[in-house]
Amino acid sequence: MTRTSSEKNAAPTAHVQVVPVLELPHGTSNNLEGDDAALAALGYKQEFKRAFKPIEVFGIGFSIIGLFPSISSVLVFALPNGGPVALVWGWAICSFFLMFIALALAELGSSAPTSGGLYYWTWQFATPRWRKVLSWVVGYCNSMGLIAGLASIDWGCAVQLMAAVSIGTNERFVPTTGQTFAVYVALLLCHACVSSMATTVVARLQGVYVALNLLLCVAIIIALPAATPGDFRNKASYVFGGFANSNGWPNGFAFVLSFLAPLWTIGGFDASVHISEEASNARTAVPWAIVSAVGIAGVLGWVINVVVAFCMGTDIENIMGNPIGQPMATILFNSFGRNGTLAVWSIVVFVQFFMGSSILTASSRQMFAFARDRGVPFSHVLSRVNKRTQTPINAVWASAFVGLLLGLLAFAGPSANSAIFSLAITGQYAAFSVPIACRFLGGKKWNPGPFNLGRFGLPVAIVAVAWMTFSVIILAFPTSPGPDAQGMNYMVVVFGGWIILCLIYYYLPVYGGAYWFNGPLMTLEDVDGESQSDAPTTEMDNARRSLNTDEKHAV
Question: What is the pTM of this model?
């Protein structure tokens, strides 16, 4: 294996042993069982309390998806690009392909459940030549995707709150961007406080989130058709075949652009991976949480979209341009009236608030894990776990702060605001695609966990990566053809700039990550109680925690 001069001089020579899954590194106490042993086999000591039960592992992913509140937030992207056809068939198509992504990630999560997840898997399966830089980029893309998800969720929640005020004042109140941003900042602060609570509290909250989420969905499915006046009820021919296009693209391409709505809604399901070090029976709970969250969201979300399409009327221009300022709130207002809408909408906002706290929890665990492996600035601060709450409080507040900065894009106009939603998807898909592809292209032996697709793993991975590549391409297009500066899609600028900055930081002479980032670091303690976290960290030293059983070297 070829090493750079910086890697050769990084540390004295040391004996290295590659460790297969569930085999503990040499010198480690073997008084470990179950989840702790599985984590130790990956090279990490147990720092969190394993308080998440399987239903709560499912809950954090499902609560981030959010369903009806999420559909409400992104309805503005679906209605102008297909109307009811986009709601019904666009959702069905995306749900089908999203399941391939979920299956591919579930298999990886069962094999090596760790908070670092995606960048850790990239390191394990990529070729020695590329794994450092790929792991680096994936770590930063995953962090950005999750934080952009936080920003888009909280911005959507702020808009929903302002819509409630508008309804309550008979549409006399029209919020400014500054007022909405102030609410957005307040939401970030509240979510940071919630995510800083003890692990047990955060875990138990997931059960509440799941219950309220499902109850809201059932209530909408039953109550909306019952309350909708005849003037706003649509025929089945319109629901399943009606098409609306108000942005100027050809109909077929407009329909494709509507995919932003379901892609953003059913996103963030890697959250279960990032809390795997806080979950019991993680190698089984994590993969099933991912698959079940995506599957239930796909089916239940499709039913909700069909119900909305039946009950929204046909005047899409009025829905989009109503002074209320929120399309779904307008639809509910037409059906329930002012008081009924405020009652339902308060629950929608409440559930959307839960989404924000859950994704900040996942984002903070990703940042903590990357800092633990010295991948971000101020790593020694961000990788600290509060002894009282057993949560990475510093990483929580750092994630919220970056989300605040990202929210400033809203002042650049509606197109820049939509870029936040697109960035959440693009960052995730870039981070998802690399480890899925590396698993088959890196030439490393695959050691499956309890959740294993067997011979179907490769075709599932091919479809997943192809779909994500296609999705990122369509998300780069502006809302309308021939845009001016206000109508540009700034997702390309923001995401491209982020990747460029990551690579500049990596290759920066002397100070760049290429000179000191060496992938996952051991944090185990040896049998004498001494930390191994400061052990030599050359590329060969990191191989001792590799998941591959076919390599054994000495340096």
Answer: 0.85
